[in-house]
Every structure is written in structure tokens, then in C-alpha cells.
Amino acid sequence: MYKHKNKQDETKEKQNYEMLEAMIKNFPGGISVIDDDLRLAWSNHLFYKNLDLPEEIFPVGSSYSEIIRFNAKRGDYGVGDVEEMVRERVELALNPTEHCFERQRPDGTVLEIRGYPLPNGGFVTTYSDITKRVKIRHLHQNQKEELFQILMNVPRAIITTDNKGNILTFNRHAEKIFGYTFSEAVKQNISILIPLSTRKHHDEYIKLYQDTGKKRFIDQGPRSLFGLHKDGSEFPLELSLAQIGEGANVRYLGVARDNTDVKLREKEDKKRDQLIFESQKLDSIGQLAGGVAHEINNMLVPVLGMISLAMEDLPDKDPSLEKLKIAMEGADQAKKLVTQILQFSRNKIDNELNVLIGDAVSEAVNLLRASLPATIKINYHSDAHDVQVKCSSDKIFQIIMNFGMNSKSAFKNQHGNLDIGVDVVDTTKSDGVYEHATGSTCFARLTFSDDGCGIDKSITKRIFDPFFTTKEVGEGTGLGLSVIHGIVNSCGGSIAVESEPGKGTTFVVSLPLAGEDFELNALQSVIA
Fold first, then answer.
1. Cα–Cα separations (whole angstroms), residue 246 to 36, 172, 356, 397
2. What is the DSSP letter of 317?
3. Of these four, 32, 94, 135, 394, which has the most CB atoms within 10 Å of its CB?
4. What is the pLDDT along the chain (528 residues), one digit of tens a residue?
5. Which residues contact 279 (CB under 8 A, 6 or more apart)?
6. Crossing angle (nearest 10°) for helices 82-94 and 64-73
7. Cα–Cα distance, 156 to 171 (Å, whole number)
8. DSSP per-residue letters across 455-492
9. Alpha-carbon span 237 to 223, nearest angstrom
10. Would you tell me how many other CB atoms lie within 10 Å of the CB of residue 291?
11. Which SS3 state, helix, strand or coil, does residue 385 take?
12. Would the CA dihedral through 141, 147, 149, 151 be positive or negative?
């Protein structure tokens, strides 16, 4: 009976041993058992794989201190004295405690190491390869940091509060428009950003919403109101409110924009509208003046004619001739005044005229030659014969003269060449060098090229801005190119510029041909 019982015990012990061995072998991570003599009692394949230990060197029964020494020599524990690192770890192994930590091996592998002391001495340790998990964690952390940086730097004030109105988030744009720093604002009540005149209404609204759930502004889109700056000044802002979460974890998100500039633009728009009204009024006056001038001119024609005939009928020494000469001079002065009034009245009418582009440019070039020094050579060519554009001759003159004066400055009192050309271009066969906004497939092209100092690319986008100039004080107003910009725009054309410092500048003006139905497109300055 006793022997039979021993055999059962032996069988059960053997089964337990085999079960434990199978568990260790199939454990989904590395596992090692160190006995009370600090020797390797059990291990599995993943123990050697995860630690990159040669199994043939460290079989079961190997000294724990030798395993530690092997790891220390190859840098698993970082830089330091090898024997000191072995001593420290052996001391901990003699009095093991439950522990868990992450360790990155020299090859970049990250292991999660968990240790558990055994009842009769020794300890068991598991080694899990968590490299992928750590990478995902780092990725999430980076994404979280990136999202935080976006939140902090977005060009809108972002503010979040808890259900009691205490500020939790306060980004840089909020700092900018409200005047508080992040540390000053966080944990303060949102009421510090609300003017006293509306603070009571805000508190009542929040209480009403929390008691009844009735929404008046939350999730209802932006609304206009006033904010309170740290210095006590009020300013207009646009605010959108949203609720995040439910119950005790509810948060409120506010997205705000300082509307000061918007209000200023509205005032500027009103001023612009007033200027447009004044311009229209001036046009009406011009038309009236033109009508009056024509009537006066009609009356002057017979006066001048009769005086001229009377002077022809009198003998050379007749005393009445002097009186008639005085009358003639007065009538001539009146005629000159009428001419000036007609020129004023035609400022609006001329914009509707068509002009032969080749003839208009040729006349303007002749005037430009007389205005530029002899050191600047002008080369003019035209391939646009009998081609009319929707522009007036005086506007063509202004374009040529302003380009000419601009090129004069580019030569800096040195010799240079100025090439001016006119041709007709079919965009369906264009070489693609320039973009155009004439609204047509066919247009007249005015090319103006110099071999002067050129324009730096950093400022080419600003050269058409009013009052922008690189000249010294007193040498230019910065209006020349902006005047050209306005003229071309009013004619429904486009303008492009190609320039490089030291290699000159080329301007290309495209104008719609007369006789076609073009829409007036906004001027586009294309930087080639």
C-alpha cells in the first residue's frame, strides 16, 4: 500500500514537472527561473532570443552572475564599470522583490522585464518584446504633441473650460488678443475675459443651460460680442462655443477671433463707398462741364468768324482793328478755356474709346525719347498694324512714360538699352511664357524690356503696391507701377513681370482687342 502511494506521488510529481516545463516552453515571452543558489534553473527559447543570449554558452545551470557579466560587457546596462554593475544586480537578486521596468537594448529592442520572488528563494523573470508597442506609444505621444502645438499656434484664440468656467486651455493667440499669459489665465474663471457689462448675462446663460439644457449660443455658430483685455480695454470679437463630453466631465470649447481689424475694414469700406460716390459725382460734373463747353464752343465759332471777317474788311490802318484784335484775343482765351474743360470732361469718356495700339505707342515712344538721356538707347518695333485695343491714347501714353521713367532709374545714370515692342498674340498658340487675364484667346501685347539692374525676387510681388519703392527718399513716390496697374486693370488687361538682379527686367502688358465682348477681369500680376 505504501509503495503504491509513492508511485502515485512520483507519477503526479512527474506530471506536474512536465506541465510546468510545457508552460515555460510555450510562454508567449521570454522566461527564466533563478534558484536560491543564483543559477539558471529554467528557461525557454524566447528568453535567449529576446536577450540575444547564446544558448550554448548559458545552458540551464549557468551562473546568474556570468549572465549579468556577459550583458554588462556588451553594453546592455549602459556605460560603467562592469564588475560594479554585476555586484549591484547580484545583491538585488539575493533579496528579490517584485518589479517591472522597460529596458532598451543596444540594438534598439525594448524589453518589458517583470520579476517575481519565489517562496523558497530565487525568482522568476519574464521578458516581453514591446518594441512595436513602444513605437506606437511614441507615435501617439508625438501626434499628441503635434496636435498640442497646432492647438497652441492656430491663428484663432482657443480656450477650454470645465463645467464651472475655470480655464483649462489658453493658446498663444488667446494670449495675444486677451493679454494674459498661459500661466496667468489657466485655473482662472472665464469671467476675467468678459466685460463687466455682459458678465452677469453670461453667468445667467450658463446656469440656465446647465439646469435646463437649453442652448442659445452653444453649438449655434459664431456670434459677435466684446472681450475684455487684461489692461481693462474692451474689443470686438467673434466667438463660437461648443460642448465637449457629458456629465461631470463636460468641457466647453471657445474659438474666438479679434474683430478689431474687421471693424476697421468696415469703416474703410464706408470711406471707399464715399469716395466712389464722390467719383461718380465728379463724373457727372465732368459730363455737365463737357456739355456746357460744347455749347460755349458753338457760340464762340460765329463770334470768332465774324471778328475775322470784320478784320479782313477793314483797311490796315483803321483804328477799329486794335479793338477787334483785343476782342479776338479774348475769344481765343475763351476757346482755350473751353478746350481745358473738354479735356477734363473726357477723362471718363476716353476710357470707352478704342485706339490703334501701334500708332499710340509710337507717338508715346517719340515723347519718351525726348525725356530720357542720350545714354539710354530706345529700340522700338511694332507688328500690330491697324489693331485697335480697348484703351485710350492718353492711357497708353501714361503706361509708356511710367515704364520709361522706371527703366531710367534701373540704369542708375549708366548706358543701357530699352526695347519696346507691340504685337498680337493668339493664346491658343502661345509659348506659355506668360499668363494672361484678358478673357480672350487673342489680344495685343506690349513688351517693355531693359537691361538695367533688375528686381530681386523677394520684392517682385510688391512692386505694383501703391507707394512701394526701393528708391531713396525724394527720388520717387512709388506710384508709377501702381498707376500702370490701375490703367491696365481698367482696360480689362493683365500685366506680367520677369526680372533677375543684374540681368534686367521685362514687363508684358496684354490688352483686349476692340470689337470683342470682354469682361473686365481683375488684374493679375504674374511673377514668371
1. 55, 27, 74, 71
2. T
3. 32
4. 444 457 776 777 677 767 777 777 778 889 999 999 999 998 999 999 999 999 999 999 999 999 999 999 999 998 999 999 999 999 999 999 999 999 999 989 999 999 999 998 999 999 999 999 999 999 999 998 888 888 888 889 999 998 888 999 999 999 999 999 999 999 899 989 999 888 877 777 767 776 776 665 666 668 888 999 999 999 999 888 888 887 778 888 889 988 888 777 877 777 777 767 655 655 665 566 667 767 777 887 888 888 888 888 888 888 888 888 888 877 776 776 666 455 545 544 444 467 888 888 888 888 777 677 878 888 888 887 778 887 877 778 778 887 887 777 767 667 888 888 888 887 665 544 444 444 556 788 888 888 877 777 777 666 766 555 655 544 554 556 766 777 787 777 888 888 888 788 888 888 888 865 433 333 233 223
5. none
6. 150
7. 9
8. --TTTTTTTTSTT---SPTTS--S-HHHHHHHHHHHTT
9. 8
10. 12
11. coil
12. negative
Cell of 127: 521578458
Which grid coordinates are listed for 528? Answer: 514668371
Are the beta carbons of 137 and 130 closer than 8 angstroms? no
Longest Cα pair distance anywhere in the chain, in angstroms? Answer: 177
469: enclosing H helix or E strand: none
Q: Residue 509 CB: number of other CB atoms within 10 A? A: 26
Q: Which three cell numbers stand for residue 428?
A: 491658343
Half-sphere exposure of residue 278: CA atoms within 13 angstroms, side-chain side? 6
3-state SS string over 401-438?
HHHHHHHHHHHCCCCEEEEEEEEEEEHHHCCCCCCCCC
Burial class (CB in 10 A: 0-12, 13-18, 19+), 345: buried
CA 480-481-487 angle, to 5 degrees, is 95
Instruction: Provide the 10 A C-beta neighbour count for residue 279.
Output: 11
> Within 13 Å and on the Cβ side, how many CA atoms surround 5?
2
Residue 520, C-alpha cell as written in the block: 473686365
Phi then psi for residue 383, to 5 deg, are -115, 15
Question: What span, in angstroms and rounded, lies between the C-alpha atoms of 151 and 157?
Answer: 9
Residue 312's Cβ-count burial label (10 Å; 0-12, 13-18, 19+) is: exposed
Reading the block at residue 114, the C-alpha cell is 517583470
Residue 518 contacts residue 390 (beta carbons within 8 Å): yes
Considering only CA atoms, give the Rg of the chain.
45
Query: Are 439 and 512 spatial neighbours (Cβ–Cβ below 8 Å)?
Result: yes
What CA–CA distance (Å, rounded) separates 324 from 161? 93
Q: Work out the burial of residue 329: count CB atoms within 10 Å of its CB; fewer than 13 is exposed, 13-18 middle, 19 or more buried.
A: exposed
Overall pTM surpassing 0.90 (yes/no): no
Residue corresponding to grid cell 522700338:
380
Q: What is the DSSP letter of 327?
A: H
Strand partners for 117: 123
CB 458 within 8 A of CB 470: no
CB contact at 8 A, 163 and 156: no
